[in-house]
């Protein structure tokens, strides 16, 4: 069975309580359940990880390099200067989608640039908790089921397998 990594950064563990007018009322558990529902038809499962510290997030990326088919990453404010997380994601060999609950470009100027977005397979912003579902759908699309059992690469650094 395949899995995706659902990686959430600082302050996202208090979703549902934290500024609901900006981030909504869904908790991280609600989001993980909706992502799980989205990918269940493929037989995938979710490895949900949330940490306040960048080092723990880096460790999670490294630990799940080989046992996941892709990742959904909400780095939170680490998008601005989370260079070690960025480097870990640069070495992650699968497609991954950066997600932000709010529209970061409609907010303060300091939120307008992500050091990670140029490496991501895609970016979803401003769609609230539904953005995670959209990211899950994108990962399903990037990892199509084929008769040969091989997948087509969805990340520029991923090797493409060919049928003999």
Tell me what you see in this structure.
- By secondary structure, the chain is α/β, with parallel strands linked by helices.
- The protein has six helices and five strands, in the order βααβαβααββα.
- α2 packs parallel to α6.
- The protein is globular.
Features:
164 residues, alpha/beta, five-stranded parallel β-sheet, 6 helices, 5 strands, globular
What's a quick, concise take on this entry?
The protein has 164 residues and is α/β, with parallel strands linked by helices. The chain contains six helices and five strands; from the N terminus they run βααβαβααββα.
Break the fold down into its secondary structure elements and pairings.
Blueprint: E1 3-8, H1 20-23, H2 28-39, E2 45-50, H3 54-63, E3 70-74, H4 78-81, H5 83-90, E4 96-100, E5 122-125, H6 130-142
Helix pairs in contact: 2-6, 3-5
């Amino acid at each position: 069975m395949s899995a995706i990594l659902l990686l959430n950064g600082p302050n996202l563990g208090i979703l549902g309580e934290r500024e609901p007018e900006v981030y909504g009322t869904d908790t991280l558990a609600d989001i993980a359940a909706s992502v799980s529902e989205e990918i269940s038809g493929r037989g995938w499962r979710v490895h949900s990880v949330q940490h306040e510290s960048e080092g723990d997030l880096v460790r999670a990326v490294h630990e799940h390099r080989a046992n996941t088919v892709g990742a959904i990453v909400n780095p939170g404010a680490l998008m601005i200067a989370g260079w070690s997380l960025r480097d870990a994601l640069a070495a992650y060999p699968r497609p991954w989608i950066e997600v932000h609950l709010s529209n970061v470009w409609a907010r303060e100027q300091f939120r307008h640039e992500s050091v990670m977005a140029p490496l991501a397979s895609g970016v979803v912003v401003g769609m609230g908790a539904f953005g995670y579902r959209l990211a899950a759908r994108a990962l399903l699309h990037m990892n199509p089921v084929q008769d040969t059992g091989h997948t087509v690469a969805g990340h520029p650094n991923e090797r493409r397998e060919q049928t003999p």
